[in-house]
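[job 0412] stage=complex_fold ligand=pyridoxal-5'-phosphate status=START
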Amino acid sequence: MDKQQYINEAEEALLHTYNRFPLVLDRGEGVCLYDTDGNRYLDFAAGIAVMALGYSNEKYKQALKNQIDQLTHTSNLYYNVPTMEAAQKFLKVSGMDRVFFTNSGAEAIEGAIKAAKKYAYTRDGHADHEIIAMNHSFHGRTLGALAVTGNAHYREPFEPLPGGIRFADFNDLDSVKAQITDKTCAILFETVQGEGGIYPATEQFVEGIAALCKEKDILLILDEIQCGMGRTGKMFAWQHYDIKPDIMTSAKALGCGVPVGAFAMTERVAEKSLVPGDHGTTYGGNPFVGAAVSAVLDIMEEEHLTEHVEKISGYLSEKLDDIAEKYDFITAHRGIGLMQGLVSEKPVGAIASECLKEGLIVITAGTNVIRLVPPLIIEEKHVDEMAEKFERVLSRI
Ligand SMILES: *Cc1c(COP(=O)(O)O)cnc(C)c1O
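[job 0412] stage=complex_fold status=DONE, emitting structure tokens
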């Protein structure tokens, strides 16, 4: 079949919930993807910040193959070794005390919300608590995750959503303070807003909220689904600040392509939170995904990926500064580590499409941001190639 035929047949079979780029991807190697016609693409999107190790990492593939031969699923009614190891490794790098593995990011958010509500319920002896979330946030597409997502366009058709959510402005401590009531049990935000347009939280905001939470026994929930797992140069973005969340979420690069997420918490929260009967999942944390998480964490440690990100992101950031300087319709550059955004006055969808013609994959965020979230293994030569291809597009668009 040729490419157009594949696309037509996919469009006939799949529910049309995405306007997809006309690309039929076939295989990946390192930082590159290849389509069914054999065309090569330099990938600065990494399957939306998932493929941190790039494509076809030998050690990762071997771990998955071995686990497929051994055991893929048991349910959570029993113990299994890979998930026990994955949990220990996750707690070690996060500094959390207890973790629950989910099947996706949205489900990790659902779990985090339930964990916070249960904590407040146990503490106060009654329900009816509130959570403060941020405008322009993104936490996923399930109903609970939508309830804390500050984007009217995503929410409207599905209202009423679960209640007890108040919205404040990201990086505006006073706007958060204004939403606090006697019922507030948690404050939730992305340490770096991703879909909203690549906005890192300021130190003043993060540390101000953490202090506020401590003072009022409000739980701080950080969504590290996109910005975690080494992407910002630390294992988790909150580790750039002098704070520790009470609950945090992870997903995306946690399994590097295997569907897995997690919510984790400190012992102080766990003591008053979810107990048998409160929460569950059939697939979540099965031996197959456990082996994936375990391999990802091992490889990241062995290859010193966070240190690598810290180094290479400086190089990428300089290139992007140069680009922002050179083209007057690129009005801003912001980001941290390998989570970078360029604000464009020209349509970002068109720019991303033109990049494909040059063999470069980039994605967008918000309405006017080109988002670069490459595999964490990129090297200077990949940054150079990206800049060359990207500039060819910018100079003709
Ligand atoms: C992608 C994302 C989610 C949702 O994850 P899914 O796996 O798509 O459900 C939640 N929060 C953030 C910050 C994300 O980037």
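The longest helix spans residues 305-326.
[job 0412] exit 0
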